[in-house]
Automatic annotation (TrEMBL):
Keywords, ordered alphabetically: Transferase
Residues of the Glycosyltransferase 2-like domain: 9-105
Pfam families cross-referenced by the UniProt entry: Glycos_transf_2 (PF00535)
InterPro entries: Glyco_trans_2-like (IPR001173), Nucleotide-diphossugar_trans (IPR029044), TPR-like_helical_dom_sf (IPR011990)
Protein name, entry field: Glycosyl transferase
MF terms (GO), sorted A to Z: transferase activity
Length: 367
C-alpha cells in the first residue's frame, strides 16, 4: 500500500523533570503534531518549561500506578498515532531524521511501531545495552497500559520493527526507592503478584542489594512457568548475579546453565561461563565458551536485554587472554586483532597488541 503522512500525538507523564524535559522536547522537533504532558505532582519548574512547547498540560493525582497515568495521557491524544517517551529520553539527530522520513511515508495498515531502546553506553558513545519497546501506536486501537510498576503497552495487529532508536539519557535524579516502595505497599496489602510483578519486584530487590530476597522472588517467578521467555532468561542471569555476590559458585553455575532451557545459548551466558573457567584457570574450558559466543548469530527478533560487547569484541578479548595463558601467542594476537576492529581505542586491546608483538618478536628472533 502507498505510504502517507500521518499525524502524531506525543504523550508523556512527568514529575520534577526540569533537568531533562526541554532536552527531550527539543529532540522531537517536527515529529509530533501535538504534545500532551501529564504532570503527576511536580514541585519544580517542569510545568513552566513545558509551556514553551505545548499548552496541553494536564494534572493527574499520583496513585502509585504508572499504567493509570499513561492511560490517562493516551486518553488526551487526538491525532491518528500516539508516541510515548520519558523525560530523560531523546532522539539523536540521525534518529529524528529517520523518524521524520517514516512519518512522511507511513503504511496506514501498521498498528504498532517498536524501536530499539538504548540504555547504556561505553566511553566512546557506542551502545552497550539495549532492548525493544513498542513506541508508536494507532490511537483508534485503544491499546492499554498494564501494570502499576514497570508497565507495558499491550498491543496486537500489524507490527513494524523499526531501526529508529530512542536513547535514554538518565540523570540519576529520580527516586531510586520509588518502585520498591510501591511493590512493598502492594505486598503489605496482600495483593497477589502476577508473574511479571514477581520478576520486576525481584529486580528492585536486586538493585537494592537485597540478594537473598531477590533470589526468593526470581525463583518464585520461574516456578510459575508463565513468564515471558526473555524475562525467564534474564531472571537466570540475575539469579547468577545474586549467587556470585553471595559467593555461592555452584548455584551461580546452575542458573547460567538453566538459561539454556528457555532458548538457544546466548552470548551473554557463554561469556559468563567463559569468565568462570578463566577465573578458575581452566583455560581450555574458557576457550570453548568464549569461542561459542563468537560463533552465535545475534537473535534479530529478540526483545530482551542485549549486552553488545558479548556479541562483538569481549569474547575475542578474553580468548586472547586464555590463549596467552596457554602459551599460544599467535592465536592470542589473532583474537586481540579481531577485538581491535570493534574497539580500536580500548586500552586493554592496545596493551595486548604491544605486549604480544613483543612476545612474538622475541620468539621470531630466537627462531
Amino acid at each position: 500500500m502507498e505510504g502517507q503522512k500521518i499525524r502524531i500525538s506525543l504523550c508523556m507523564i512527568v514529575r520534577n523533570e526540569e533537568a531533562t524535559i526541554a532536552r527531550c522536547l527539543d529532540s522531537v522537533k517536527g515529529i509530533p503534531d501535538e504534545i500532551v504532558i501529564v504532570d503527576t505532582g511536580s514541585s519544580d519548574c517542569t510545568k513552566e518549561i513545558v509551556t514553551e512547547f505545548t499548552d496541553k498540560i494536564f494534572d493527574f493525582i499520583w496513585i502509585d500506578d504508572f499504567a493509570a497515568a499513561r492511560n490517562f495521557a493516551f486518553g488526551k491524544a487526538t491525532m491518528e498515532y500516539v508516541l510515548w517517551l520519558d523525560a530523560d529520553d531523546v532522539f539523536t539527530e540521525c534518529d529524528r531524521e529517520k523518524f521524520l522520513k517514516l512519518k512522511g511515508d507511513f503504511d496506514p495498515l501498521v498498528d504498532v511501531v517498536n524501536m530499539p531502546y538504548l540504555l547504556a553506553f561505553d566511553q566512546f558513545g557506542a551502545a552497550t545495552f539495549s532492548l525493544r519497546r513498542n513506541r508508536l501506536v494507532k490511537r483508534s486501537k485503544n491499546f492499554r497500559w498494564i501494570g502499576a510498576v514497570h508497565e507495558y503497552l499491550e498491543v496486537y495487529g500489524h507490527v513494524l520493527n523499526s531501526d529508529i532508536c530512542v536513547t535514554h539519557k538518565g540523570t540519576g535524579g529520580n527516586d531510586s526507592d520509588r518502585n520498591l516502595k510501591i511493590y512493598e505497599k502492594r505486598k503489605a496489602k496482600g495483593e497477589a503478584f502476577s508473574p511479571r510483578d514477581l520478576y520486576y519486584y525481584a529486580n528492585e530487590l536486586l538493585d537494592h542489594r537485597l540478594y537473598n530476597q531477590a533470589i526468593e522472588f526470581y525463583q518464585e517467578f520461574l516456578k510459575t512457568g508463565q513468564g515471558w521467555v526473555e524475562d525467564n532468561i534474564s531472571a537466570c542471569g540475575k539469579l547468577a548475579d545474586c549467587y556470585q555476590k553471595l559467593e555461592r559458585n555452584d548455584e551461580q553455575l546452575q542458573y547460567i546453565f538453566k538459561s539454556f532451557e528457555y532458548a538457544s545459548p546466548r552470548a551473554e551466558f557463554c561469556c559468563r561461563l567463559g569468565f568462570h573457567f578463566l577465573s578458575a584457570k581452566q583455560y581450555e574450558q574458557g576457550i570453548f565458551w568464549y569461542k561459542l559466543a563468537t560463533q552465535l548469530e545475534k537473535p534479530i527478533d529478540s526483545w530482551g536485554p542485549m549486552i553488545e560487547a558479548c556479541w562483538t569484541w569481549l569474547p575475542h578479548l578474553q580468548l586472547c587472554v586464555c590463549y596467552d595463558r596457554l602459551g599460544k601467542h599467535e592465536l592470542a594476537y589473532e583474537h586481540n586483532e579481531i577485538a581491535r576492529r570493534y574497539r580500536p581505542e580500548n586500552t586493554q586491546v592496545i596493551y595486548n597488541k604491544t605486549y604480544l608483538e613483543g612476545v612474538l618478536g622475541k620468539i621470531k628472533a630466537k627462531q
